[in-house]
Amino acid sequence: MRLLLDLRNVSERAEREQLAREAEEHGIWGVVVTGPQGAECVEASAIATATRHVIIVVDVDGNDVHPTTLAEEISVLDQITKRRTMVIFRGPSTSKTSIAALLSGLPVDGVILSPPPAQASIPVHSPVDIPETNLSEDLTQLAAIVDQYRDSQTAFLIVSWERSVKELARHALGRAASTDFPQMVADMADQIDPIDQ
């Protein structure tokens, strides 16, 4: 299971960029960003320029936007991120289908994107496809939550976390990836290299 750090409720751009850099530094697979309707990709591109490897999951509102216009913006974002874009689409299913086709290089109503995305196909998900959770500051509860989603074969999990990204990575990344995560390794790391809050 891949963890996605939720940055959608972080109000300051500088703080979002810093958290994204920390997520990248500590091995978090992706970050979730959004912005005002029509400017979601602008916010995502700011995170993309602050990072090099972390996946940028852009949460877009497609209710009042033409699918081709939105697909073009996402395609440009994918060029900026150098193939690090993933989409959570909130809007009509017909629009989602059109956007997914366009972002896969397929024509829709005779339209083909130019420029095309950097990826052969940008993943487009509905909000219900990717569960979200607020992780507890209690590390035992954090472990139980991550184990529950991992054991249910969840591919991605969006996590909100109020403490340091380093601590999240230390206690949740290995656990998310493997049922054999040795908790004592994370506990010993806390003793050797304490995390300042």
Q: Could you describe the 3D structure shown?
A:
With 197 residues, this protein is α/β, with parallel strands linked by helices. The chain has helices at residues 13-25, 40-50, 67-81, 93-102, 139-151, 165-177, 183-192; strands at residues 2-6, 30-33, 55-61, 85-90, 124-125, 132-134, 156-160. Helix 2 (40-50) packs parallel to helix 3.
Helix and strand string, N-terminal first?
A: EHEHEHEHEEHEHH
Give the distance, in angstroms, between the N- and C-terminal Cα atoms. 27 Å
State the total count of DSSP E strands.
7
Low-confidence stretches: none
Radius of gyration: 18 Å
What's the overall geometry? Answer: elongated
The number of helical segments is: 7
Backbone structural class = alpha/beta
Strand content: 15-25%
